[in-house]
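Reading a protein record of the kind used here takes only a little practice. Think of the row as the fold of the chain written in a discrete alphabet. With that in mind, consider the following protein and its fold in token form:
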Amino acid sequence: MGFKARGKPTGWLRLTDLPEQRLLDKDYPSIVYWEVKDGVVWHQGRRLRGSDPATFEVRTDEEYKFLGRDRSYVYHAWSKLPKLDRATFELLTDNYCKDKNLAYCTYETSLQPLKGRTLKNFQVLGRGFARDAVHAYYWGKPLRSCTAPLTFALVNGGGDRYARDREQIYCEAAVLKGADAGSWHLLSNGFSRDISNIFYDAKRLAGVDLASWQQLSGPYSRDDKRVYMMWWRVKGADPNTFRPPE
């Protein structure tokens, strides 16, 4: 999905303390995220009516650059968020945040409460994964196939991509359909297996012979009759003579 796990957020900065009272995009300085102009706070050319420029604070974290706050409210872009509790609002990691009432995920265009609408058992696990008493999440998207969110956990050695609960295995937001959670384990280069299947990412290699299957280099593998590139069969390839491209 193109997301990257991030570390603990940096602190809030008073907008009026920044050079020219502006927060610019690091890569495209012509983009002005926040500024105080004519005694008013602006976000990307739109005026934040009712905001207090003297106490207005912003973030330089890439995932939180659309967030701002003054002494009374939290803002996302040009939208005031009066239902969010300013005093207890806290940024976590991986785009997640919370106040005394709910947990939220920030997106480029919005900040939305998580679908479970509860803080009970809420925990950010890392790599974009989180859970509460109702759902497991991947970058704020509920994994609705997860019916046991309190057993949801990261898979050690799974890089940024794998998690599991007591019943299922997940690669990012996708379920490895048909995977046996008791026997499933990671291999390398995107492959994993259980007692009956070979998977690449979340896809099963159809028709594979487990007894003769072996990994080659990169995304390639083979059995006695077939050659696979990721989960696709390489048509016409001879498994006895095939060599992966360098």
Q: What stands out?
A: Residues 1-7 have pLDDT under 50 and may be disordered. The two ends are 26 Å apart (CA to CA).
